[in-house]
Amino acid sequence: MQRGVRRNKSRLTPRLFSGLDNLARFPRFMRTPRFALLLAAAVALPIAILTAASPVIAQEQVIPFGTISCSSNFGNPVLLDQKLFRLAATPAAEVASLQKNRPALSAGPFAAGKFPYDRVEIYVVGKDQGENDTEESAVSRYVRAVRNQKESWFSIAHEPGDPPQSDFFTRTKGETSPEDEIDRDNDPGPAVSLALKNGVPIFEVSWWRREVGASTVAAEQKIILLDFRTLRPSMLSVLQCISADGGGVCGVYDNSNASTTTLSCDWDVAKSDFLCTSSETGDFTPPVTHRFYLGSGADAPYTVKEGDPPTLNAVAVWSTYNGFANSTSAPDVPGWEL
Amino acid sequence: MTILGRYVPDGARHAAVLLASRGWNSLEPRYFAVVVESQGQSAAFEILPQPLVDEPLIVPTTDVSSSPDTRGYVIPAAINAADKFADDAGPVFQVQALESFSDVALWQVTAKQGISHEVVWLAAGFNSGTGRYVFSAVRIASEFGAYASCGGTRSEPFAASIDRKKGAMDANLDVEPAHQYGLEGKLDDSGLCPVNVRLFWNASAGFVREATSAECPATTKSRSMTISDAGVINTAVDDSREK
C-alpha cells in the first residue's frame, strides 16, 4: 500500500486568511448549534461519498510510512490545538446514510489481541458549498470500528476556536499541492491512509485548500491523525501545512518578520509514538529546534555527550572545582547545544 | 555555553559563576549566573541586560537560598534539554575585567555572532547585609538590531563615549538614543537628542542609571556606531536620513 501526498515546504498562516475578505467568504454559521441540524439534514440530501478503488487516494508525492513532514510559513503554526478536535459518536441518522456507501479506507484485522478493534473503516464525505461556491466543499469524516462483530461509528467534532471549523474542514476541489495548478476535472479528493505499515491502527486523513487573499495566495494542507489503538479512539494530532506567497512588509501581516516552522517526525517503535523535531527559521529568529513526541506531547531531551556536564548548574559546579573558569569554551549543555 | 568568569565574595563559602550562550528568542546572546554552594548545591539565573535608557522590565521574584536580588533584571534560568540549535553559528565572547572589589566585580563582555557584535557590562556582587548575590548587566552598545515594522529596523541606545572612574563602580556615558531605520537602511526618525547617563552600583539593586538631558541644539546630528572584534565602539555622524 502506498501512502499519499504531501506536505510540502509551505509558506503562510491561517491568521493571514482570517481577514475581512475571508469572513465574507466563510460565514460563521457553521460554528453555531444550527450547524449540527444542518449537518444532520445534509446526510439525507445528495452528498458525495468520496470513495476510492484503492484505499489510498492521491497524489503526486509518495512518502514513506511512519514519517510526517509538514511546514508552515508566514508565522503559521504547524500543530493545531488538539483540544479543539475530538472523536464523537455519530448520530444514528447519519450512520444510516453512511452504511450504503463504500469506505475510503478499510483496514484490518490488526495484530491479534493487541488492539481492541478488528477492523476500522474511514468514510470521507464531501458536501458542496452551494451555488455561490462551486470550487470548494465541506469535508466530513466518519469512522466505523468493528469489535467482536459489533460496530461503533465515530465522527470528528470540532469545538469553536481558531481555526474555525468552516475554515479547517473546507477543501478546494482539484487542489493537490502548492506547486500544481488546480485541476477540478481530476479531483482526487481527500487522501486517506494507514500511517504505519505494521498493522498499527493509526490513520491519516488529509486534504488541500487554496486560499486567496487580497495580496496573498496559499496552498494549505490539513492533516488529521486518528488513533484507534485503544477502545476509546482519539485524535493523535491535527496539523496544517501552509505554503503562502505574496503579501508584503507593510500589510496587516508582515511577511518579512514571519518565521517558517517545519515539523519532521518518524515513528518510534519503542515509544509507540511519532518522535518529532520542530524547527523555526527566519531572518530574525534563531534556528532553534525542539524535539518531542507527537501523541503524548512529551519533550524528548537530547542526551548528554559523554564526559560533558548535563546542566548549566553542573557546568558551573565543574568550573568551580575543575578550573574551567576563564576558559573561552565550555562543554555543550543539552538545551544549549549547537 | 561559555564560562565568562567567577566571583567569590570575601570569606564566602560559595561562589558565583558567570556564563553566556547564544540567544534563544532573539539574536542577542544570553547571560547567566550560577551560585555554587560549598555542598555542591547550585541555583541558576539569567541576567537580562538593561538598555541604557529604556524603562526597566518587570520580572518575577524568586526566593531561593543565596539567590540574587530579583527586583531588577534577574530571573530563574530556564533550560530545556529537548531544544537544540540547528546550526553551529554560536557566538564568541571576549571578557575584560574592569574592576574587582571584595563586594563586587565588573567585566566588559564583547560578544560576536556572525557579523554582529555587542558590548555588555556584567557585574556580580554580594550584599553582606542581606546575604544575597546581586547580578546586573547593562547593554553598552549593540549591532543586533531589532525588527521594527514595514521592513524597517530599530537600533538600541548606545554609549558614544564612556567616562569611567577607575577604582569605582561609576561611569558617565554620552548615550545616543534608539533610532528607527527604514527599508533601505536609512535613518527614519528625527529630533532625538542624546542623553547623559550616570551608571553606578547599588549593593542591593545592581546597576542604577540616572539619565539627564544633554545639550541638544537644532544642529545636533544623529550618530551611528560600529563595534570592532576587540569591543571598541566607533561612532560616526549618521547622514543616511530617508528623503
Task: Please give the alpha-carbon distance between the first and last residues of chain A.
Answer: 39 Å
How do the SSEs of chain B run, as a string of H and E? EEEEEEEEEEEEEEEEEEE
Radius of gyration of chain A, taken over Cα atoms and rounded to an integer in Å: 22 Å
Number of spatially distinct domains of chain A: 2
What is the average per-residue confidence, as pLDDT of chain A, rounded to a whole number? Answer: 75
Question: Can you tell me the number of structural domains of chain B?
Answer: 1
Please describe the biggest sheet of chain B, giving its number of strands, its sense, and whether it closes into a barrel.
Answer: 5 strands, antiparallel
Order of helices and strands of chain A: HHEEEHEEEEHEEEEEEEEH
Overall morphology of chain A: flat
Number of strands of chain A: 15
Summarize the structure.
The complex is a heterodimer of chains A (338) and B (243). With 338 residues, chain A is mainly beta.
Q: Can you characterise this structure?
A:
The complex is a heterodimer of chains A (338) and B (243). Chain A is mostly beta strands and 338 residues long. Chain A has two domains: 15-300, no CATH class; 303-338, no CATH class. Chain A is built from five helices and 15 strands. The radius of gyration of chain A is 22 Å and the shape is flat. Chain A starts with 19 loop residues before the first helix and ends in a 16-residue tail after the last helix. Chain B is mainly β. Chain B has strands spanning 2-7, 15-21, 30-36, 42-47, 74-76, 83-85, 92-100, 104-113, 116-127, 132-142, 146-147, 153-154, 158-164, 170-176, 180-181, 195-202, 206-213, 223-227, 233-237. Chain B is globular. Strand 15 (288-293) of chain A pairs antiparallel with strand 6 (83-85) of chain B.
